[in-house]
């Protein structure tokens, strides 16, 4: 009986000691991964060749919010800077609220084949639209 008890205790110890640890995995929605990778081409320094205007995109989060700055050549803050994806098309929207630019916007589309941002600049003060494009500074 003493041997059977010792065997039972040994088996319980082995069974308890060999319980597998539970791994915790972080699950990232597929849409978030696709959005992040879609926006990954956007960070960089973008220059408008017709005047040296610059959009510097430092980063973009999964929701499309851009950490970006504008210069003409003096720095001006964006009140809004965001990217969206419609199918395979990446669209960017920037709004300026600085003096002389109050309400002026850039509505751009990213062209991955040419690696350019192209679209329309709306100059709110004079109520005019201009076709523009930005090339990536290398």
Structure description:
The chain has a single domain, classed as Beta Barrel (Lipocalin). The protein is 19% helix and 45% strand. The longest helix is centred in the first third of the chain and has 16 residues, at 2-17. It is built from two helices and nine strands; from the N terminus they run H-H-E-E-E-E-E-E-E-E-E. The chain has helices at 2-17, 30-39, and strands at 44-48, 53-60, 66-71, 75-76, 78-86, 89-96, 105-111, 116-123, 128-136. It has a nine-stranded antiparallel sheet, covered by helices on one side. The protein is an alpha+beta fold.
Task: Report the uncertain regions.
Answer: 1-35
Indicate the structural class.
alpha+beta
Distance between the termini: 82 Å
Strand content: 35-45%
- Estimate the mean pLDDT confidence: 81
Rg over CA atoms, rounded to whole Å, is: 27 Å
Short structural summary:
The chain has 138 residues and is α+β, with helices and mostly antiparallel strands. It has helices at residues 2-17, 30-39, and strands at 44-48, 53-60, 66-71, 75-76, 78-86, 89-96, 105-111, 116-123, 128-136.
Give the tags:
9 strands; Lipocalin; disordered N terminus; alpha+beta; 138 residues; single chain; nine-stranded antiparallel β-sheet
């Amino acid at each position: 009986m003493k041997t059977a008890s010792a065997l039972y205790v040994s088996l319980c110890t082995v069974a308890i000691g060999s319980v597998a640890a539970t791994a915790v995995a972080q699950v990232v929605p597929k849409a978030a991964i696709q959005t992040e990778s879609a926006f990954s081409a956007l960070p960089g320094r973008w220059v408008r060749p017709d005047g040296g205007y610059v959009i510097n995109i430092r980063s973009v989060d999964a929701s499309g919010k851009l950490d970006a700055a504008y210069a003409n050549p003096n720095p001006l803050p964006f009140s809004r800077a965001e990217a969206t994806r419609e199918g395979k098309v990446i669209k960017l929207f920037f709004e300026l609220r600085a003096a002389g630019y109050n309400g002026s916007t850039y509505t751009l589309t990213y062209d991955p084949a040419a690696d350019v941002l192209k679209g329309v600049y709306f100059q709110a003060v004079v109520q005019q639209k201009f076709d523009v494009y930005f090339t990536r500074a290398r």
